[in-house]
Design brief:
There is one protein chain. Helix 6 packs antiparallel against helix 7 and helix 7 crosses helix 8. A hairpin with a 3-residue loop joins strand 1 and strand 2. The two termini are about 25 Å apart. Helix content is about 45%, strand content about 15%. It is built from 8 helices and 5 strands; from the N terminus they run E-E-H-H-E-H-E-H-H-E-H-H-H. InterPro entries: Thymidylate_synthase_ThyX, Thymidylate_synthase_ThyX_sf. Its EC number is 2.1.1.148. This is FAD-dependent thymidylate synthase.
Length: about 230
């Protein structure tokens, strides 16, 4: 069964652990009537569809998924607001910290043909791919920025400056960070409903596509019904 999908140039999403299944959702809903199903039936599938259609979401909060994500900081900080703004108290986020580790930094660098123009009628988002010459120049400049920053970071570490301050030399938004995200099935679908939209940032859309592919193998009915 698929449990890891590569994303962007160096990133990935890995499904670490799962608690529950579509049957968990069914039995949580049936608890009100002191009933329980031993296996998923057509009647149970109809129940899941009803719960999703009528926005009866509490049964979907009895199933949990845990992901490991490796993504640029600009993706991580968009993702993080689903924890800050969550009313599901069991949501959790633990991120690697350069206060404690000094592993070699990785950075997301768009290829020449991946740089996007600013949108014509919006203050956020992006438009079409820019001309090749401009993309080539942008990639070159970003590589040079990273090269200079890494040199300064290594200098600071070698001179004995603490890791938590040495990291100030590293470019932030493109730097890859790693975290564990644990959340309910409803929390996953709330994230997916917003980050699979066409107007979401392209990079986080790619991560959302990986999340839905991994989650759908474990919760095929619920994922379909909550993400219509």
């Amino acid at each position: 069964m698929l449990n890891k999908i590569d994303v962007l140039d160096k990133g990935y999403v890995r499904l670490v652990d799962v608690m529950g299944s579509d049957l968990t959702v069914v039995n949580a809903a049936k608890a009100s009537y002191a009933k329980e199903s031993k296996e998923l039936t057509e009647k149970d599938i109809k129940l899941i569809k009803f719960l999703a259609r009528e926005d009866h979401t509490s049964p979907f909060r009895h199933a949990f998924l845990q992901f490991e994500v490796y993504a640029p900081l600009m993706v991580a900080r968009q993702w993080w607001k689903y924890i800050v703004g969550s009313d599901h108290t069991m949501d959790a986020w633990n991120e690697s910290s350069r206060r404690y580790i000094t592993e070699e930094p990785n950075f997301h660098v768009p290829a020449f043909n991946e740089w996007r123009s600013k949108p014509e009628n919006s203050k956020q988002g992006s438009g079409d791919i820019v001309k090749f010459e401009l993309g080539e120049e942008a990639t070159y400049r970003l590589f040079k920025t990273i090269e200079d920053a890494e040199s300064n970071y290594e200098w600071a570490i070698e001179k004995g400056i603490c890791a938590e301050q040495a990291r100030l030399f590293l470019p932030a938004y493109g730097m890859y960070v790693r975290w564990y995200w644990s959340t309910s099935l409803q929390g996953v679908c709330h994230f997916l409903n917003q980050r699979l939209e066409h107007d979401a940032q392209k990079e986080i859309q790619q991560y959302a596509k990986a999340v839905i592919e991994l989650a759908k193998e474990r919760f095929p009915v619920s994922i379909d019904e909550l993400n219509k």
